[in-house]
Amino acid sequence: MKKFGRRVAGLSLIGALLLVAGCNTVAGVGQDISGSARAVQRSL
Question: What is the DSSP code string of 2-40?
Fold first, then answer.
C-alpha cells in the first residue's frame, strides 16, 4: 500500500508540472482549469 501512495503522489507531481509547463502564464492556468471544468460539466 505504501508503494501505491508514492506512485499516486509521483503521478500527481508530474501532472502538475506538465500543467504548469503547458501554461506559460497564470492566466493560462486559469483558462485551462475553466476549460476542464466546463468539459466535466458537459459530460455530466
Answer: HHHHHHHHHHHHHHHHHHHHH-SSHHHHHHHHHHHHHHH
pLDDT digits (tens, 9 = 90+) for 5-17: 788 888 888 888 7
CA distance 22 to 1: 32
pTM over cut 0.85 = no
Residue type, 1: M
Q: What is the phi/psi pair of residue 23, to 5°? A: -115, 110
Which grid coordinates are listed for 22? 503547458
Span 12-35, pLDDT tens digits = 888 887 766 665 666 677 777 888
